Amino acid sequence: MNRKLFAAYLGGLTLLALSACAEDNSADNAAAVELTTYKSATCGCCKLWVKHAEDLGFAVTARDVDDLGAVKNRHGIEPQFQSCHTSVTSDGYVFEGHVPAKLVRRFLQNPPAGARGLAVPAMPLGSPGMEYEDKFTPYQVWQLNRNGSREIYAEITTAAEQF
Q: N or C: which end of the chain has fewer CB within 10 A?
């Protein structure tokens, strides 16, 4: 085999190997998904959650509001499922609190029948935006359904499961 042909062959194999090793985000690409996140202007963990979502490819518009209760009421978030911020998609899905962005993406790629969103009640230590040292508290992600029912969508038992 001549040198030029061998070099081209080797270059092609290298490209093939690199493309096989590269992470394909085409199916998981959340860049086209826009979220509007309603939060308090002074809430640091909300800002960190917005960054978490942006880092995973979401286009987030953060809106500082004075009355988060009104936002939660408008979107039907019951008190036991409320947290410090509420994110909404343009087609009306709602994500309450520190829901890992990977679960938001999974939900939006294949919304469960009758579901209207996900919620992480309160502010679990170690959840996205609530990181503190190496501390982590396991938590549940709840699926909120249009008929008013709810069910567990995911159980997060380790910090690594969030990413």
A: N
DSSP state of 149: -
Q: Which residues contact 50 (CB under 8 A, 6 or more apart)?
A: 37, 39, 60, 62, 129
Q: What is the pLDDT of residue 11?
A: 40
More confident site: 22 or 61: 61
What DSSP line would sit under 38-76, residue for residue? EE-TT-HHHHHHHHHHHHTT-EEEEEE-S-HHHHHHHTT
- CA–CA distance from 144 to each of 45, 77, 80, 126, 132 (Å)? 23, 9, 12, 22, 28
- For 65-108, strand residue ranges (E) read 86-89, 94-97
Q: Give the integer Cα–Cα distance in Å for 125 and 122.
A: 10
State the average pLDDT over residues 140-156: 98
Cα–chain center distance at 118? 10
Cα separation, 131 vs 119, in Å, equals 18
If you search the block for the tokens 């408008």, which residue do you land on?
74
Q: What is the pLDDT of residue 114?
A: 97
